[in-house]
Design goal:
mainly alpha
């Protein structure tokens, strides 16, 4: 439970900050920042719950996390502009942390429910990317995981290793988190893309 709670906290904070930064990038007001921050932080969990058959209302049992998200969104929104000028790297970094933390959490959730490895892979992918997908749609831009550098692929680390039962310790979970963040940032730095094909 300690690993679960830590991952939940890390993912919530990282995605709340990411949502607030995106809101400022598209010039939304303070309410827009709260909306994008909250949907980024909690949207993936809602998608996961729908996927594996849990009531969406279980999200409302995370009262403390809503308060924490509110605080970090507020702090981010009112940070001096010179701190936020590093948005390109800062936003991607927090998004990568949220991606990894929630992907691991989704895989753990499915594994603990004794679901097959395919469910762990799907839960990792959708928990990791669901909030960001909703954020991008509300911000009026194409979802990041569909068109940018390699993104959703890195959630396979969590889905396969946890869903197969290979990794079941806190050290293992945080090693996967580190791998996802490192590979996501490397894919941004070096411009790694999956093959693309378009029709005329």
């Amino acid at each position: 439970m300690l690993a679960w709670d830590l991952l939940n906290l890390i993912g919530t904070v990282a995605f709340a900050i990411s949502g607030a930064i995106v809101a400022m990038e598209v010039k939304y007001d303070l309410i827009g920042a709260y909306i994008l921050g909250f949907v980024t932080a909690f949207g993936g969990g809602a998608v996961r719950n729908l996927l594996i058959g849990l009531p969406v209302t279980t999200l409302w049992e995370q009262g403390n996390l809503f308060i924490i998200a509110f605080v970090f969104i507020t702090i981010t929104y009112f940070l001096p502009s010179f701190i936020l000028t590093a948005w390109g790297k800062l936003g991607v970094f927090f998004d990568a942390i949220g991606l990894g933390a929630f992907a691991i959490q989704g895989a753990i959730f499915a594994y603990q429910m004794a679901l097959p490895i395919s469910a762990s892979i799907a839960a990792a992918a959708l928990t990791g990317t669901g909030g960001g997908m909703i954020r991008d749609l509300l911000a009026g831009r194409r979802p990041l995981f569909l068109e940018k550098e390699i993104y959703i692929l890195w959630t396979l680390f969590a889905g396969v290793l946890i869903g197969s039962g290979i990794v079941r310790s806190m050290i293992g979970y945080f090693t996967i988190l580190l791998l996802i963040v490192v590979f996501r940032m490397l894919s941004v730095h070096y411009g790694w893309y999956l093959p693309k094909r378009s029709l005329p």
